[in-house]
Amino acid sequence: MLYNLLTPYADQIIFFNLFRYITFRTGCAIMTSLVICFLIAPSMIRWLKAKQKEGQPIRELGPEEHFKKAGTPTMGGLMVLISVVISTLLWADLSNVFVWVALMVMVGYGAIGFADDYLKLTKRNTKGLSGKLKLVAQFGIGIAATLLIMDNMPPELSTHVAMPVFKDFFINLGWFFLPWSLIVMVGASNAVNLTDGLDGLAIVPVAIAAACFGLISYLVGRVDYSAYLHIPHVPGTAELAILCGALIGGAMGFLWYNAPPAAIFMGDTGSLAMGGFLGAVSVMTKHEIVLAIVGGLFVLETVSVIVQVASFKLTGKRVFAMAPLHHHFEKKGWSEPTVVIRFWIIAVILALIGLATLKLR
What we know:
Elements: H1 2-6, H2 22-52, H3 77-91, H4 97-123, H5 131-151, E1 160-162, E2 170-172, H6 177-195, H7 203-221, H8 223-229, H9 240-258, H10 267-284, H11 288-294, H12 296-315, H13 325-331, H14 336-356
Antiparallel strand pairs: 1-2
């Protein structure tokens, strides 16, 4: 909003020229989102605690240590969503279609997560929305987002998937790009959701991935940098760096209260929204495969669940002591902070590998 209001007067008032720079507005978005999160968190935690009474239902078959967390409120992702949306509306170019698509996915998936959390709280179980209904809603939002992305993408890129490492190597999926995009968005959303099982475990890798895709968005949106790095150039995507910055600020604000022992849990409200957002940004920047590397921790967690279920159905045996993967290590005797910090380290390493693909051509 500030960009649209003030840049027309940049020639008359030199200070307003700052608002033309995406880097400046991204920095402001980070700080704005962080401050908003800090301001609303205490009252929101008190309100959620008063409304939820018994807090988030604890999984009965989970690690015994988790029963100590009974009474901790959930839906903390709301404070991140509020911070990101307000910060984005303040600092982003609101005439940019990609900004609205990213917000649509984040808010839409957040609404699905909110409904899921609400049902878990009111029914006092860990099931919430049925899996089928949740997927139908996610696919519906994903289809709308993908069609908008394809319509606003350069024709030579609209249905193409870029291969990392190789120079100017694209695969044209045609109409198969639609299911591909849905797999990326819905898969990323649910992968983050599966990872969100310990205090602080998911939010830091989300912030790391947001930082990586903030940089990628900026590079892909700049014709000079994209040409130098031999990566796809998608006009308008540089503005997504502001949304990624807002997510970093909101994530750090949330971590202040989610750090062990957590005063509030993210809930599906936050995890589905943030994962879907990262998936949407990767589709818009043509770096879907790089997301699988940068967000490799989310992939590992998801694969552990798939392997566990498949193994038990086929052989009656479990590969892991418990799935997702973080619970396996808890069952093996690792303390929760140990699991969380080591998984953060893995997330940083994978992020660096993902960013390295930008130069390895």
